[in-house]
Specification:
- The structure holds two protein chains of two kinds.
- Chain A has one domain: 6 Propeller (Neuraminidase).
- Chain A is built from four helices and 24 strands.
- In chain A, strands 1-24-23-22 form a four-stranded antiparallel β-sheet, with no helix packed on it. Chain A has a four-stranded antiparallel β-sheet with strand order 2-3-4-5, with no helix packed on it.
- In chain B, helix 2 packs across helix 8 and helix 3 packs parallel to helix 8.
- Chain B is built from 14 helices and 25 strands.
- The longest helix of chain B has 20 residues.
- Chain B folds into three domains: about 300 residues, 3-Layer(aba) Sandwich (Aminopeptidase); about 180 residues, Glucose Oxidase, domain 1 (3-Layer(bba) Sandwich), CATH 3.50.30; about 90 residues, Pdz3 Domain, CATH 2.30.42.
- By secondary structure, chain B is an alpha/beta fold.
- Chain B is globular.
- The N terminus of chain B is likely disordered.
- In chain B, about 55% of the residues are buried.
- The chains are: A mainly beta, B alpha/beta.
- Chains A and B meet through helix 1 and strand 1 of A and helix 1, helix 10, strand 16, strand 18 and strand 19 of B.
């Protein structure tokens, strides 16, 4: 670094003729890891290209990651990409048109499931409208719009064919396969469109469609669709656990407080796992089957951090990340040694959120969970 | 820093098993370590451009290039590409003579009394005298209306101006005037109005009152077409006597910033200014080599990829740029991170590609003169031995040896839309916690290539406490991660070489120009973290006992407002500094973690 910088800035702000610096002598190397480094090490950034990326889910063999990213200059919405760790290359697996979200590898198969609006004839117009809006220099607060034309598809990597699994009017997305690849649990807002709504419900729909989202289950071919929840508030972010239950997050009616819940695949035995009086969401099970990782804004409305909680939810969750801004959507690798997550920590281009990968210290996690106190009841 | 122990262990292990079949990473790491230790050793004396130490360093780099099998560029027989530059300037005995019409003359000489400004011509100027206030001219385009020369006739005259800008003007006025207060700019304004000479006096109400302006080291020297000097209060006394006013009273009038306060002719005297500046021309050497393509792509318009790093440093820190404390003044500035680290990384990349098939030529450059203002790379792009539009891209390495917590900053990514994708692909294997900055207007050689419209990147691991100090030594380098920086870059280069498509250069608009240097006369004791892209100014540290520390600011704080000016980046900060007054407390709002705090900082004078 040359003198130019020095002349212009550094000299002005740091020039010092007589100060004695002692920082170099501080023995930082002997400190035990603190904060995020207690559990996460060698944090690295996986996605760089594009405005934002997120929701990275692992292939069952841990060699690839499927994620959503806004990186096509012609499409301002998420498309689905698969990242190959061996080559560093990514390829798009979604149609390129419309909006997509929440991809998931089907175990024992060449299929990848995701939600997509590409069949909506208006989808190209929406792309253009959004691009025009952005070109006008305006910024809007990022918000997911629960497009009612979103349906779940299974994409075959072998043939490139797209199999439509849901057809109901209303947002169908946020799905996960069962460990044997035979079932899909997902979230749907079809309840807002398949019956006559009361005036109050119509008002609610205009205000926030996600209020009508409920958890559904179906076979991997789209048959035997069945509703599992029936209460006010947004239910979604659904995944199977190793022991055959379902974990998801349930929003309270006010749309501000969410918590992690589990239930049996038939919809019975619902159990609340977290109780923060905050937005706690995006739960995912560690492959040990011992605990869930999830995101919560307990520490500030826009400051999401990753937490973990014991499987039964009997203890107070343990904080994992500490970066201001967004850290969330944690997904451990199939072997449990790594964790992919989404974070806005980098700042700069693409700072809206990118996917990161870190080594995961399972032993430290188990010790911290063991040491955690009993679950507290928040003041409301 | 948390990795230090780990690194030491890793190095110890690599030494133990040096004879065993080592991984390529270990072999490269050991070679890189040797190169950094050699370049940063006392023998090379800080590698000041034009010095014997620089020549030794160039010889060493050339021996490494020969070992690797790189060649001089096509049509050349030598790896060295010399360029000349002005190594410094000193006063050669400037004199000022004040002759009264009524008879009698006084002559002043001696560096503490009358000293040429570094950009002055060596020329004699004689003429009547006009006091032009602060000598400030705000261009009409600014729509502000301030011209110290309004209503004054200065053709063939000697103008007298105050240093700096009006001390008592309101903040907005000061902010605007500060931008035009650079003495070089004032001299230009005087010359454009026909003045033959300019005399600068530091007013009694300003910092450094009554003293001459130090002869700054200015490599961008070109004749300014005017005799220009600063004088002490003593030498200025006979001029004020002729004016029949006190300097203090005159300054007070101008200090209001009121544009209607006019300058005036000083009757009864003629002044002769004999300005004498001695400029020292020296020669620096870039070292440039290449690895020819083994299986060239056919039909591509950009058959070259370039990598480079500057290998020069500050010598003993005597010619500017040093941040050494008093107790280590004149010591060898080792420059292990700045930039033996980048030099070794560039060599490692060349070595890696020397044994691989190459579809494009790899140009490998080692710049000198970087610390003096990107002189070597600027000379290269001014007279490129390879057409610049034949370069698919240029990758620069400057201060890459201090990877901490796996963080690596890549700058100038805005120069092509292709960089994020290439970096994403290459980083999957390299595995850094990457931070991207689009801005290519960086104070390193990447700036020369951006100006020349070449798609470029520069890699940087952040500023640190040893920056530009003798203590930037080889033992503080993180070798394991330094090798990985080269691996990331090699991943990008490999893809650049293999693809028939070359990155399309995109011009990034330069952010608002920083303020004039006049604002830099005050001292706040903050050390900005340049690698950060947080909103606000992240403090990498504070100077012990400085105003910032006294105000309670600490490393890690993010300053978001100073004296009512919101701060979103380093440019805003520099600009805001211009508004502050020495000794006058300014309100500072900052974030400590998630907590918003407020304090009061009192800037001190900078010598």
């Amino acid at each position: 670094m040359p003198d130019v910088l020095t002349k212009r800035v550094i000299a002005a702000v740091s020039l010092c003729s007589a100060a004695v610096f002692l920082w170099a002598a501080v023995p930082v190397a002997t400190q035990a890891p603190t904060g995020e480094r207690t559990f996460l090490s060698r944090v690295r950034r996986l996605t760089v290209e594009g405005k934002r990326a997120g929701e990275g889910y692992w292939a069952p063999d841990g060699k690839r990651l499927v994620f959503q990213s806004e990186r096509d200059p012609a499409n301002p919405f998420y498309q689905i990409f698969v990242l190959d760790f061996a080559t560093g290359d990514t390829k798009r697996v979604s149609p390129g048109m419309g909006k997509t979200t929440c991809a998931f590898f089907r175990p024992g198969s060449d299929e990848i499931m995701f939600g997509s609006t590409h069949l909506d004839p208006k989808s190209l117009q929406y792309q253009k409208d959004e691009l025009d809006f952005r070109a006008s220099g305006k910024e809007r607060r990022y918000a997911w719009d629960y497009d009612p034309e979103m349906d779940i598809f299974a994409y075959s990597e072998k043939t490139g064919a797209m199999k439509q699994l849901t057809t109901a009017k209303g947002y169908d997305a946020e799905g996960g396969y069962s460990p044997d690849g035979q079932w899909i649990v997902f979230s749907s807002m079809r309840d807002a469109y398949n019956r006559t709504l009361s005036p109050a419900e119509q008002k609610q729909l205009a205000l926030d469609a996600s209020f009508f989202a409920e958890v559904y289950i179906m076979k991997a071919d789209g048959t035997e669709q069945k509703r599992l929840t029936d209460w006010a508030g947004y239910d979604g972010g659904t995944f199977f656990t190793k022991d055959g239950r379902i974990v998801w997050r349930h929003f309270e009616e006010n749309g501000l407080i969410a918590n992690v819940w589990t239930m049996k695949p038939d919809g019975t035995d619902k159990k609340q796992i977290t109780d923060f009086a905050a937005m706690s969401w995006a739960p995912y099970e560690h492959p040990s089957g011992e605990y869930f990782v999830f995101a919560s804004n307990k520490l500030g409305f826009e400051n999401f951090e990753v937490f973990m909680v014991d499987k039964a939810g009997t203890k107070e969750p343990v904080q994992i990340t500490y970066t201001p801004g967004f850290d969330g959507l944690p997904v451990p690798s199939p072997d449990g040694t790594q964790m992919a997550f989404t974070s806005a920590r980098a700042g700069g281009p693409g700072s809206a959120g990118q996917i990161y990968l870190a080594q995961w210290n399972h032993e430290a996690a188990m010790a911290a969970l063991k040491a955690a106190g009993p679950r507290q009841t928040p003041k409301r | 820093m948390a990795n230090t122990k780990h690194v030491v262990v890793a190095i110890a292990v690599s030494c133990l098993f040096a004879s065993a079949p080592a991984s390529s990473q270990t072999a490269t790491s050991s070679r890189t370590r040797t190169q950094v230790e050699t370049l940063a050793s006392d023998k090379f004396e800080g590698r000041l451009t034009g010095s014997p130490g620089e020549k030794l360093a160039a010889d060493y780099i050339i021996s490494e290039l020969k070992r690797i099998g790189a060649k001089p560029l096509p049509g050349m027989t030598d790896f060295r590409m010399p360029f000349t530059f002005t190594a410094g300037s000193k006063d050669g005995g400037t004199t000022l003579t004040v002759t009264k019409d009524a008879g009698g003359a006084q002559t002043f000489t001696g560096a503490a009394t009358v000293q040429a400004l570094s950009f002055s011509d060596t020329v004699e100027a004689t003429g009547r005298v006009v006091f032009a206030g602060y000598g400030l001219v705000v261009p009409e385009a600014q729509n502000f209306g301030y011209d110290s020369y309004a209503g004054l006739e200065v053709k063939d005259k000697i103008v007298v101006v105050f240093r700096y800008f009006p001390e008592d003007a309101d903040q907005k006025t000061r902010a605007i005037l500060a931008r035009y207060a650079d003495l070089r700019y004032k001299a230009q304004a005087a010359r454009q109005r026909g003045a033959k000479g300019m005399i600068v006096i530091t007013g009694p109400n300003s910092p450094n009152a009554g003293t001459v302006v130090p002869m700054s080291f200015d490599t961008a020297i070109a004749g300014s077409g005017i005799a220009a000097a600063s004088v002490s209060g003593e030498a200025f006394a006979p001029i004020m006597a002729a004016a029949g006013k006190s300097l203090d009273a005159v300054q007070k009038e101008f200090d209001s910033g009121n544009p209607h306060v006019a300058g005036f002719a000083i009757p009864g005297i003629t002044v002769t200014l004999k300005a004498n500046v001695i400029r020292q021309q020296q020669t620096g050497n870039n070292v440039v080599a290449y690895l020819p393509a083994t299986t060239p792509l056919t039909g591509v318009v950009k058959p070259w990829v370039a990598v480079g790093a500057h290998y020069d440093h500050l010598g003993r820190g005597t010619t500017g740029g040093s941040l050494a404390g008093k107790e280590e003044a004149n010591a060898i500035h080792h420059g292990a991170d700045d930039n033996a680290s980048g030099t070794a990384t560039t060599l490692a990349i060349a070595e890696a590609f020397s044994t691989q098939p190459r579809k494009r030529n790899l140009l490998v450059a080692f710049w000198s003169g970087e610390e003096l203002g990107l002189l070597g790379s600027a000379a290269f792009v001014a007279k490129p031995p390879v057409p610049l539009d034949a370069l698919a891209g240029y990758l620069n390495f400057d201060m890459v040896g201090r990877v901490a917590d796996n963080k690596l900053t890549v700058q100038a990514t805005g120069t092509s839309a292709m960089w994020p994708k290439l970096l994403e692909q290459a980083n999957i294997a390299a595995g850094f916690d990457l931070v991207l900055q689009e801005d290519p207007y960086q104070p390193t050689d990447v700036g020369s290539f951006n100006t020349a419209s070449v798609a470029c990147l520069t890699f940087f691991t952040g500023a640190h406490q040893e920056y530009h100090k003798p203590s930037d030594t080889a033992d503080k380098i993180n070798y394991e991660d330094l090798v990985r920086v080269g691996e990331l870059a090699s991943g990008v280069i490999k893809r650049l070489m293999d693809s028939p498509e070359a990155p399309l250069f995109t011009k990034v608009e330069q952010k608002t120009e920083t303020g004039g240097r006049a604002g830099l006369r005050l001292f706040t004791g903050t050390i900005p973290d340049y690698a950060s892209d947080v909103k606000g100014l992240l403090l990498g540290g504070v100077i012990g006992g400085g105003p910032a520390e006294l105000a309670g600011l600490a490393k890690g704080d993010v300053v978001i407002e100073i004296a009512g000016q919101s701060i979103t980046n380093i440019y805003d900060y520099t600009f805001a500094l211009e508004l502050l007054k020495i000794g006058q407390p300014a309100k500072v709002i900052y974030m400590r973690g998630t907590e918003k705090r407020e304090t009061s900082l009192t800037p001190a004078a900078r010598k």
